[in-house]
Amino acid sequence: MEDATSKAIPLKRARVIPRRVVIAAPSRWLESLRGTVQLAQAAPRQVWLAALGAVALGVRGVRSGWDRLVTEGAAVEDNFRPQPARPPELAGPC
Q1: Residues near 26 by Cβ (< 8 Å), separated by ≥ 6?
Q2: The predicted structure's pLDDT at residue 94
Q3: d(CA 6, CA 28)
Q4: Residue 11 and residue 51: Cα distance in Å, rounded?
Q5: Which pLDDT tens digits describe the chain residue by residue (94 residues)?
Q6: CA–CA dist 37, 30 (Å, integer)
Q7: What is the SS3 assignment for the chain?
Q8: What is the DSSP string of 37-56?
């Protein structure tokens, strides 16, 4: 019986205190570069929404231009399409 109690699974895990790792201080030019990149990535919401609006206007302009080109192309094709020949007029009693 004594062997069973000594081999029991511990309920609490041992707490391991990690050693503090000393990190070398980054150079000054690297800090300024990181700051610049963070500012560029953190664009204001208004700029993001304006970019979306510009894209929407561009898509709308391309679609309207495409519709106009299709309409003009259909008109040109109608001009070049051969007209069906009319049957000759039948001479009737006058």
Answers
A1: 34
A2: 59
A3: 57
A4: 57
A5: 565 566 766 666 666 666 676 666 667 777 888 887 777 777 676 777 788 889 999 999 999 999 999 999 999 998 887 777 776 676 666 5
A6: 11
A7: CHHHHHCCCCCCCCCCCCCCCCCCCCCHHHHHHHHHHHHHHCCCHHHHHHHHHHHHHHHHHHHHHHHHHHHHHHHHHHHHCCCCCCCCCCCCCC
A8: HHHHHS--HHHHHHHHHHHH
The two tokens of residue 78 are 């109608």
Q: Which of 48, 50, 68 is nearest to 58 (CA)?
A: 50
Give me the amino acid identity at 92. G
Say how far apart CA 72 and CA 66 lie, in whole Å: 10
For the chain, the 3-state helix, strand and coil shares in percent, each to the nearest 5, are 60, 0, 40
